[in-house]
Each structure stands twice: as C-alpha cells, then as structure tokens.
Design brief:
alpha/beta; Aspartate Aminotransferase, domain 1; Aspartate Aminotransferase, domain 2; globular; binds pyridoxal-5'-phosphate
Length: 412
C-alpha cells in the first residue's frame, strides 16, 4: 500500500491537480469519464510534435521511419501489457466506441434473420447501440442479461438466454456506473460452448485489472487510452488472429490495401487491414508513456489503493441521511473505484452544481447508461470515481460538500 508521501509524489506528476476551481483546489473525481495525464505523457506529446512528426508506413525518410518504429513499439507494448499472442492482433482505433462499431460492422455478415446477440442491462450506450443497429438491419434479436439489485449479472438468466442462435455476447468487464467487475471468464467459456463469439468492453479495466488475453480466451477485447492516463482519440481492438483474418475490413482507403486497380483491390495483412487512413500517430506514440506510468506503479497496487479509497467513500457517504448508494457496497473484490448515488431525491444536476462550485468534479446524469437508470427507476445519478492521485482527504471534502448541498437544496 502507498504511504501518503508516495501518493503526494504521484500527485506531483499531474500538473492539472494544482489548478484552482472557483478559487478552491481542484478535486478531480470523474476518472471513469477520463483520467488526468502525468507529466511523462504531457512531455511525450510535446516531444512528438517537436522532434518526430511525420506520416507512418508510407515514407522512406528519416522521420517517417522514426514514427513507424515508435507506433509499432506501442503496439508491441500493448501486446505485452494484455498478453496477446501476436502484436498484429492489436488494431488501433479511435477508442472503445470505434472498436465496438468495427466489430459489429465486420462480423455482421455472420448474422442472419432470427440470430441472437446478447448484451447486459448495465452496458454503456457504446455497447448497446451498435448491436441494436445490426439487429435492426439483419432482423436479429437483441437479448439482455438482467442484473440483481447489487448490479451483478444474473448468470442463471444468462444460461437461459444463450442458445445455438447466439452469434455474439458483448458485455463490459467493469460497469462504468456501478463499478461492478463482471465474471467474464465464466461468460466467455459458456458462450464458446454455444459457438458464440465474445467481445469484452474493457474501457474501465486496464488500470484496475491485470489483463491476460491467453487466460481469458476472449475473441475481442476493447479499451481506450484516455481512461488509463493516456491521450484521447486513441484505443485498441484486440482480436484473435484467426478471427480477424477471416472478417472483412471496416473502413476502406489508404494504408489498408495491398493492391488497388480499378478492377479489384486486395487488402493488407493484419493489423493494417483494419487501419484505413492516417492513424492518430501522436496518440499512439504518447500512449506508450501512459502504459509505462501504469506498469511502473503496478496495476495491482493501483487497484488495492483505489479499493481503499472506494471502501472509505462508501463507508463515509453511507452515513449521510437520505443518500441512496447504487450497487455492491461490501464485496470490494467485485468492485472498482466507482460510487454512484443520489441524495434525498434531489436532482443530480443540482447536487453536481454545488459540488462543482466547491471545486469537486463529479459526473452527473444518465452516465451513458439509460437502461441501467431505468432499472433503478431514476433519470440520473451522481458518480464519483477515484484514481491513483485521489486521497482520503478529498473524499472527506466530497462528504462535506454533500452535506452542504443537502443543506442548501433542502431548504428551498
Ligand atoms: C468510457 C466507456 C466507453 C466509451 O469509451 P470511449 O473512449 O468514449 O469510446 C464504453 N464503455 C465503457 C464501460 C466506458 O466506461
């Protein structure tokens, strides 16, 4: 576990944490939306445009070779980070959302009328809408795994839903609303028994869980850089080589072709077949530094520190009269560092605005998960999500902020 001094040292790497918000110190606890960036990442971005910038793979010249090598270095680093078998199984995309759209589009030729796609009740809109659209186009059926009150998936119902007609099961590793860690290994194994493919939306996972694609044996796994201290606009699709080789590209143009004539075009090999156009070269290269940052601290150390923060937050917030905390409140082995709640039936935007005035950044609203809001019969929630640079005293400020919000809002 980290000493206060170590956490202070980590905090010092994040220049933004010295910012003031309405003359209060910034308390940034909206990390499930995006994390702040350490100085190594900020420097890498400046270094890229100051010394490296050129297009990849097309040029023979010095800078182009340099960018090409560094882009491929990041690919290999991610391969190792998630224990993929080949670096060509790592496809760069804009992020989680694009990765899911890529898979939905590329596997759609496998889906016929009456086939089934299974997702869960606690998915982010990014892992709902692409499947809904494919179902509409193909006449397929979207089936939803229900959840229990604590947010965990109802696996008995899942076993009743899955069938020989199920083509793909797509669920999140960690819910972005409740922080519940789903038993994905179990789901992957069961799905494979029925011949279904599996996609795991890992947007919340890479700085919470050691990822091992060999152990998981998932067909697809997707995440974004920006939720793990890296830049926005870049993410990956991991896919098993034999599957990626056998599904068509998602977009068409430069970089993804082998040969083009007006009669016929042949596609590049993996991973380039899925990377049409100039990629986010800066994003890819800068991401490398974010992965180093995470690896240097260690995913399991980050997880256990965040566990301490979230258990403290739940314990503290639970003492507020009239607060409703959603999802699991005890078993922290099944939960990442996210707490979502409502206060005395007050509107989440009102609560969020008062916290904001105090310098506290939380997320409010439907949290990109309207079906889950419907499950809890609310239109929105307040979400606090912690990261490696947050502290116990910041949670105390959140606690006091909520008392203040209650006092101000309940008076009227
Ligand atoms: C953030 C998030 C997404 C979307 O990620 P983008 O980076 O916006 O594409 C999808 N699923 C979950 C669970 C998320 O937390």
């Amino acid at each position: 576990m980290f000493s206060e001094k170590e956490i202070r040292k980590i905090r010092n790497k994040f220049p933004i944490l010295k910012e003031k918000v309405y003359s209060n110190p910034l308390i940034y606890i909206d990390n499930a939306a995006t994390t702040q960036k350490p100085i190594e990442v900020i420097r890498a971005s400046q270094e890229y445009y100051s010394r490296i910038n050129a297009n990849v793979h097309r040029g023979l010249h010095y800078l182009s070779q340099k960018t090409t090598i560094q882009v491929e270095n990041t690919r290999e680093k991610i391969q190792k980070f998630i224990h993929a078998k080949y670096s060509s199984e790592i496809i760069f995309t804009k992020g989680t959302t694009e990765s899911i759209n890529l898979v939905a589009s590329s596997i759609s030729f496998l889906i016929d009328k009456g086939d089934e796609i299974i997702i869960s009740c606690s998915e982010h809109h990014s892992n709902i809408v692409p499947w809904q659209i494919i179902c509409e186009k193909k006449g397929a059926i979207l089936k939803i795994i229900p959840i229990y009150e604590n947010g965990s998936l109802n696996l008995e119902k899942f076993e009743l839903l899955i069938s020989k007609r199920t083509r793909i099961v797509s669920i999140c590793h960690i819910s972005n609303v409740l922080g519940i860690i789903n038993p994905i290994k179990n789901i992957i194994d069961k799905s494979h028994k029925y011949g279904a493919l599996v996609l795991i939306d890992g947007a919340q996972a890479p700085s919470n869980i050691d990822l091992n694609m060999q152990d998981l044996n998932t067909d697809f796994y997707v995440f974004s850089a920006h939720k793990m201290y890296g830049p926005t606009g870049i993410g990956i699709l991991y896919g098993k080589k034999e599957i990626l080789e056998n599904i068509p590209p998602y977009q068409f143009g430069g970089e993804m072709i082998k040969n083009v004539s007006f009669k016929k075009t042949s596609y590049s090999d993996l991973p380039f077949k899925f990377e049409a156009g100039t990629p986010n070269i800066e994003g890819i290269i800068v991401w490398n530094s974010a992965i180093d940052f995470v690896r240097k601290i260690g995913v399991s150390k980050i997880k256990s520190y965040k566990e301490k923060l979230v258990s403290y937050a739940i314990e503290r917030l639970n003492t507020i009269d009239g607060i409703e905390l959603y999802g699991e409140k005890k078993d922290f082995s099944k939960k990442s560092s996210i707490v979502s709640f409502n206060l005395n039936k007050l509107h989440c935007f009102d609560v969020g605005s008062i916290l904001d005035r105090l310098g506290i950044s939380v997320r409010t609203g439907h949290l990109c998960a309207q079906p889950l809001m419907n499950f809890f019969k609310v239109s929105g929630m307040v979400r606090a999500s912690f990261s490696i640079y947050n502290t116990i005293s910041e949670i105390d400020c959140l606690f006091k902020g909520l008392l203040k919000a209650k006092k101000l809002l309940l008076k009227n």
